[in-house]
């Protein structure tokens, strides 16, 4: 049972309620459905018309902001997430997993660094649900912060993280999008799983008719900033589900590792407990098992989270710095396991 | 029949007629230009890399079916990843019917070229080198096809991998030939794979020359139907430099051809010289395991005619000196742990540990000369090796 989220409802109400209410821009602007649906790769983010005020990340109607209870770590970037559904369609709830977004939908995620006046939008990644499947595209913001241009080959940008680390931030190329979003050969969304969305946001979306019904098993993962109130196991397992399981699961990029870090996985061996690495190479360091119960420092899984060197670091993409909070959560979980 | 032949011809000629060529030169912006080409290419297109050195800072990736990436030779076109800052490999291929040929890759931070779920892939005259030689911080695999059906590795050269130079994992219909694997921990490794042909290769100065393994806890298990033939397996005497967590970290320095937990493996017409622990080693999986789907024993392994120049003259084995003395100064060339089933057809002096149980280690060994039967039937070679279509692609 992974409960412990009931007490967090109040907090998430505060967060999501206000965001949805604010999302009511001037009514004359709408999303350009053709840009989402037609073949071809729009060169500018503005072509889609997702934003009434791009620099302020103020969306147009039918583009709804959302957050995830436990988010993916991206070098400390602030992430602004939006979902769009075209007129006349509805998002379908199917259990605790991904919301079923109709063809013509889009998911939009903007990465920003810096606070207040100093905030700079770095990149916006869009996932477009076209008739032949999902398409992932990265857009890179200009200096003036007026628009973002398509960067299929990705880019590197020097910036300073909230922790004050100077890094070379990597904007993924179009194929690298698929490394995380690939499942069974298709591109799929990762983030908006019902279990990782707040119950209040889901309720409001259902009440407004955007989602067909309340999904079963929604809102299970703890709110990351309140993980102290959740169980140590839930906090760590939520972190691994969100940060690792898009690759480490059957059918995805790291399937050949035999490691399956999804929230619903219960088999200790699949989770890495006393499991030997397969193709970790030097990523294993001097260690023998993915997770050694009671001994975090002997666990390859934690070791690879604690370094930023390519070839060793996990995740392989989207990480230039170590997520100290994530390391701590996983360390606590492994330390608390009964040694064998 | 005639109609079929004509439509096949049309199909075959369609690609060249409409195919585009992306020409890439080294220099400023090579990372972006090359990656863009890898993304914008369409099936049938060719990406041609001019001679020169390409300084690359990030991993490349290809996800379009039917693309050829062609350089100006493994000494002419060099993709230099010495300053790589991200990604787990130099090049990742996730699409089918891809041909990679005539270029080199140096010092990738992780693996060299990884192809995953990439059916019918050809690696031809590719070189992957870690230029400082054996080092535990080199990347794990140089050539790394995994979870694929149809793999042809031909004429490649791999040096310095801290795991395996050529590693084929969880795949089917494989040929590795005419290649040189030098100064890696494992030269060539076929793991959890079926229908593999390993022939006409040179494996030298590795810790172990050619390994055929099956491991537990993986999505694909049950490795077998492997032929290791006509290889030159010489002087594999580099001390093991793999990080301890890896399975190959347990490979003893001086292993020539090693089979662990597989079924139906034929070892014949190889030349084995200067492999001081064991020119040929056939053993069960050595670790404890609790995967019910897994069979840890070698079954139906056949050692045919091979040319042995010496045996285990400096074995990296517990009690090696005593063993040597007991066998008259040198261990016979074929070593078996006594588990599963081994057959010998040719002249192959050997010795057995005569273990009676998997996972107990050498402590329970009762070494004695090998007495292995001849096989009851001829080795079934059907279906082994890469599909013929892959070889046909080389002449284009």
Please give a structural write-up:
The complex is a heterodimer of chains A (340) and B (396). A 6-stranded antiparallel sheet of chain A has the order 3-4-5-6-7-8. Chain A has 7 helices and 12 strands. In chain A, helix 1 (9-22) packs across helix 4. By secondary structure, chain A is α+β, with helices and mostly antiparallel strands. Chain A is 19% helix and 19% strand. Chain B has 396 residues and is mainly beta. Helix content of chain B is 10%, strand content 39%. Chain B contains 4 helices and 32 strands. The longest helix of chain B has 17 residues, at 2-18. Chain B starts with a helix and ends with a helix. The chains are: A alpha+beta (340), B mainly beta (396). At the A-B interface, helix 3 of A face helix 2, strand 4, strand 7 and strand 11 of B.
Characteristic terms for this protein:
heterodimer, A: 340 residues, 6-stranded antiparallel beta sheet, 19% helix, disordered N terminus, B: 396 residues, 20-stranded parallel beta sheet, 12-stranded mixed beta sheet, 32 strands, 39% strand, repeat (chain B), PbH1 (chain B), Pectin_lyas_fold (chain B)
